[in-house]
Amino acid sequence: MEEYSGQVFLAEGSEWPKTHKSVFLHLTHLIRSINDPEHPLTLEELNVVEQVRVQVSDPESTVAVAFTPTIPHCSMATLIGLSIKVKLLRSLPQRFKMDVHITPGTHASEHAVNKQLADKERVAAALENTHLLEVVNQCLSARS
């Protein structure tokens, strides 16, 4: 099984097929510029998302992104996870199975948030809410 993750990507001398590496780099680029819903910074600038917590297996069509909320009681954790998931859904081929979750041990409601993000029906219902979709789109839009 070939898997590409931030840890492997950062290791010196790692050799991976170009297509596999390009999928990883594309994915990392996609999520790094997502805006935080409360701060005028990107998720990367706040260290909410980091390259080392992104895993891609192109042959198995899987993507896993762990994100770390800025504080253990962050009220925006679900919105941040939803924004990451929507960015991936809009950007990657449909063949990819996506797992967006909170980095273990970094949030008080980690289990509940992860359960919501893993539930396709709940994600779809959330995106039918026009106000919530507008907030997600603001997180995904480029800042001027």
TrEMBL record:
<feature type="domain" description="MIP18 family-like">
    <location>
        <begin position="31"/>
        <end position="100"/>
    </location>
</feature>
<comment type="subunit">
    <text>Component of the CIA complex. Component of the MMXD complex, which includes CIAO1, ERCC2, CIAO2B, MMS19 and SLC25A5. Interacts with CIAO1, ERCC2 and MMS19; the interactions are direct. Interacts with KIF4A; the interaction facilitates the transfer of Fe-S clusters to KIF4A to ensure proper localization of KIF4A to the mitotic machinery. Interacts with CCDC117; the interaction is direct.</text>
</comment>
<dbReference type="Pfam" id="PF01883">
    <property type="entry name" value="FeS_assembly_P"/>
</dbReference>
<dbReference type="GO" id="GO:0007059">
    <property type="term" value="P:chromosome segregation"/>
</dbReference>
<dbReference type="GO" id="GO:0097361">
    <property type="term" value="C:cytosolic [4Fe-4S] assembly targeting complex"/>
</dbReference>
<comment type="similarity">
    <text>Belongs to the MIP18 family.</text>
</comment>
<comment type="function">
    <text>Component of the cytosolic iron-sulfur protein assembly (CIA) complex, a multiprotein complex that mediates the incorporation of iron-sulfur cluster into extramitochondrial Fe/S proteins. As a CIA complex component and in collaboration with CIAO1 and MMS19, binds to and facilitates the assembly of most cytosolic-nuclear Fe/S proteins. As part of the mitotic spindle-associated MMXD complex it plays a role in chromosome segregation, probably by facilitating iron-sulfur cluster assembly into ERCC2/XPD.</text>
</comment>
<dbReference type="InterPro" id="IPR034904">
    <property type="entry name" value="FSCA_dom_sf"/>
</dbReference>
<dbReference type="InterPro" id="IPR002744">
    <property type="entry name" value="MIP18-like"/>
</dbReference>
<protein>
    <recommendedName>
        <fullName>Cytosolic iron-sulfur assembly component 2B</fullName>
    </recommendedName>
</protein>
<keyword id="KW-0159">Chromosome partition</keyword>
<dbReference type="GO" id="GO:0051604">
    <property type="term" value="P:protein maturation"/>
</dbReference>
<dbReference type="InterPro" id="IPR039796">
    <property type="entry name" value="MIP18"/>
</dbReference>
